[in-house]
Write a structure and sequence with these properties.
A hairpin with a 2-residue loop joins strand 28 and strand 29. This protein has about 575 residues and is an alpha+beta fold. It has 2 domains: about 150 residues, no CATH class; about 400 residues, Methanol Dehydrogenase, Chain A.
Length: about 575
């Protein structure tokens, strides 16, 4: 029981020490529980909701418990408790006000954990020394976070940070030297079987046919070239001896052509445009090659037809004007779909202008159709019941159109409430799988036809599979893709998840002749995993590039091409 003199002494802020030593063990228990909870989320979570819990909810809950311990059970002098808590809140508020709320996902656990450990280490010292040590840590820690800058959202929703004085992503990309690239690419009129002519390959399904290579990566595949590139989330289009991609350098969006064997600059096409959101800087779409021309979509809405040999502009359109559309939240990210005489794009506009088709020779608008909202996905050609459909997945749901006229065939309303739909629709005969992250998950929709009317009905909905922006592939009745960031195998007949693998994030393609998934993880690792429903097994891995990597990998002519927002590399697949 406290004596009156103890109470008086404990209330004196200038006292040499508390009447009794700090009761530190409850705080250490709270830290241990916080670490365990974060570890469990990391081990078993997969979606952005789990990431949000691990990054924000768990540290915030720990901070609240630690505040209660400090105020009610720490035995520190009363005035020190009050002033200490107010100081900590003020320092964190200063970080939030100056550097943005995202940085608090790092600052809160760092500050609270460091303070508790400092108090634990100094618990045997006289209280003034322990107090000043804790104060010095808090101020120093806040100073470190005030010296940081949040650049964008990274893997698992964690912020990507850098020092305030370091070049921004835009400044770094603008500083990349560009050769006077005004060469000419000698290209075939049509892509061959070894080419990769656009987004996710010839059929936009991520499947590579007719290719085998050694899966023994005890020695990593031989690097052919590596070079810095401008920011962007496009992948490579590979035709003949050349590869094409899109980049941001300073205030310009670039379409670039490189020699596939050496990485040397061949030509550059520039437009004045720049887009940045929380996910990053630069264009998202991948060029499409057809008949010696390249069709490209810029983030701010500029659609171009280029001479693929020289990079010269044949025609140019602006989706914001043609569809009377605003720039979507993720920017215009849809890769152009070329069908016969048309180029089809997604606009994100309601009122019958969700999709826009252009004459690919002249650039004139051919039709507008559809309703909906934002999406990160691209138009997809599918043949259902013998009839060609242009499929479009967006926040509205699933729609399809007659390629030649834009007449609507499928109109399936399944509104995405929070997160945008990003992945491509997966077609299995007369069924289409639509993926949504968060609480909505994936749904298989059966397509039917009665007379001239098309119907779409729910076959199953699986909350055990929640793809975000990471595309997957279909093989022998099973879908191999990402439940959030974690690789998974799903039975498309029932929607049941057969197995769940590691958290790779990133993107993948399927090497059909090897029945193997090649994954480009979000940390720049390239991984091989057999595509079998029997279970998950990683068979090979090597580090290809560094930094946040959300771009799709490309394989063409025995070479693997990878890139992210800072560098690109090419490897020989023997």
């Amino acid at each position: 029981m406290d004596t009156p003199s103890d109470k008086v002494n404990s209330a004196i802020p200038g006292g040499n020490k508390p009447a009794r030593p700090l009761r530190i063990w409850p705080a250490l228990v709270i830290l241990l529980l916080q670490f365990a909870a974060s570890r469990l989320v990391s081990l078993f979570g997969s979606t952005n909701i789990h990431s949000a819990v691990g990054l924000a909810v768990v540290p915030l809950a720990g901070a609240v418990l630690l505040a209660l311990w400090w105020l009610a059970a720490s035995r520190a002098p009363v005035l020190d408790r009050i002033l200490g808590l107010l100081l900590l809140v003020a320092l964190l508020w200063g970080v939030k006000y100056s550097r943005g709320i995202m940085l608090l996902t790092f600052a809160v656990p760092a500050m609270t954990t460091g303070m508790v450990l400092t108090l634990a280490v100094t618990s045997r010292l006289r209280w003034p020394l322990a107090r000043w040590a804790a104060l010095a840590f808090a101020v120093g820690c806040a100073g470190v976070f005030l010296s940081l800058r949040t650049d964008e959202i990274g893997s698992g929703l964690a912020p990507v940070v850098s020092w305030r004085w370091s070049p921004t992503e835009a400044e770094a990309s603008a500083a990349i030297p560009t050769a006077k690239a005004n060469g000419t690419a000698v290209l075939p009129a049509q892509p061959g079987p070894a080419d990769w002519p656009g987004f996710r390959g010839p059929n936009r399904d991520g499947i590579l046919n007719g290719v085998r290579f050694s899966a023994d990566w005890t020695k990593a595949p031989r690097e052919l070239w590596r070079k810095p590139v401008g920011a962007g989330w496009s992948s490579f289009t590979a035709v003949g001896d050349y590869v094409f991609t899109q980049e941001q350098r300073g205030g310009d969006e670039l379409v670039t052509c490189y020699a596939a064997a050496t990485g040397e600059d061949v030509w550059v096409n520039r437009i004045t445009a720049q887009f940045k959101d929380d996910m990053g800087l630069g264009p998202r779409a991948t060029p499409t090659f057809c008949d010696g021309r390249l069709y490209t979509q810029g983030c701010t809405g500029v659609l171009q037809c280029l001479d693929a040999a020289t990079g010269n502009t044949v025609w140019k359109r602006d989706l914001t004007k043609d569809a009377e559309a605003r720039v979507p939240g993720y920017g215009f990210s849809s890769s152009p779909l070329v069908l016969d005489e048309l180029v089809i794009e997604f606009s994100g506009r309601h009122d019958g202008k969700n999709a826009v088709a252009y004459n690919r020779a002249t650039g004139e608008v051919a039709w507008r159709a559809g309703h909906g909202g934002d999406a990160y996905s691209s138009p997809q050609l599918a043949v259902i019941a013998g009839v060609p459909h242009v499929l479009m997945v967006c926040d509205y749901g699933l729609q399809s159109f007659v390629p030649e006229t834009g007449a609507q065939l499928i109109d399936y309303h399944w509104k995405a409430e929070v997160n945008p739909r990003c992945v491509q629709p997966v077609v299995a005969d007369d069924r289409v799988m639509v993926g949504t992250t968060g609480m909505m998950s994936a749904r298989m929709v059966r397509i039917g036809k009665t007379g001239d009317a098309w119907t779409a009905t729910e076959e199953w909905t699986s909350k055990k599979f929640r793809p975000y922006f990471n595309d997957g592939v279909l093989h022998k009745g099973f879908f191999y893709g990402f439940d959030g960031e974690r690789l998974a195998c799903v039975d498309i007949t029932t929607g049941e998840r057969r197995w769940e693998g590691k958290r790779y994030g990133g993107q993948l393609l399927f090497v059909a002749d090897m029945e193997t998934l090649l994954i480009l993880g979000d940390a720049g690792d390239v991984v091989l995993v057999p595509a079998t429903p029997e279970g998950f097994k990683e068979t090979a891995r090597f580090k290809a590039i560094s930094g946040k990597t959300w771009n799709h990998p490309t394989i063409a002519h025995g070479r693997l091409f990878v890139r992210n927002a800072t560098e690109a590399a090419c490897f020989e697949l023997q």
